Amino acid sequence: MKNNEGVQIMENLLAAFNQNTENVLSLFTPDATVEYPYAKSLGIQHELNMEDYKNHLNTILLQMPEIVFNDLKVYALQEENWYWGEFQAETTVPQTGLVYRQEYVVNFRLTNGKFSLYREFWNVLPVLQRLMNKEDAHHIIDNTITN
Fold first, then answer.
1. In this structure, are strands 99-111 and 28-35 parallel, antiparallel, or unpaired?
2. Is the per-residue pLDDT at 41 higher than 90?
3. Which domains occur in the chain, in start order?
4. Which of 88, 108, 109, 131 shows a CA-CA span of 20 to 30 A to 10?
5. What pLDDT digit, counting tens, does each position of 80-90 carry?
6. Cα angle for residues 12, 6, 30 (degrees, 5° grid)
7. pLDDT (tens digit, 9 = 90+) per residue, 10-39?
8. Which segments of the chain are extended strands (E)?
9. Which three-class secondary structure state does DSSP give residue 112?
10. Strands 114-122 and 47-48
11. Which phi and psi angles does 9 have, rounded to 5°?
12. How far is CA 45 from its chain centroid?
């Protein structure tokens, strides 16, 4: 993996997650889209415009303070400005004291050095176990099984 623009912006994004919502948003174009394809299975919003993403960040960043990111890898694709990346994250959720660990895979496109599309894939199990209250998690699981 060579050092590329994708590596730099991902390093900036991971650092911004430990700063504030505005720093994160500054790395995106105004018309960018953020997608969480697996969020749909949880019954939560899976395609976000920047206003939606701002609201999401204002909630989720409080649940993941001082998140530690490791093992960042970014791969430039043949198509210009497109990348795949992967990284690991860990934090303690303040409300529960539980450790949240996740492995992420991301696909993104840059426009003028900013994210114009950011698609993040993650395992739903740690989200259910660590970031949701038990009632909501069981409701999602029960609805998935019966549908």
1. unpaired
2. no
3. 4-144 (3.10.450.50)
4. 131
5. 999 999 999 99
6. 70
7. 999 999 999 999 999 999 999 999 999 877
8. 28-35, 47-48, 68-76, 82-92, 99-111, 114-122
9. coil
10. unpaired
11. -70, -35
12. 13
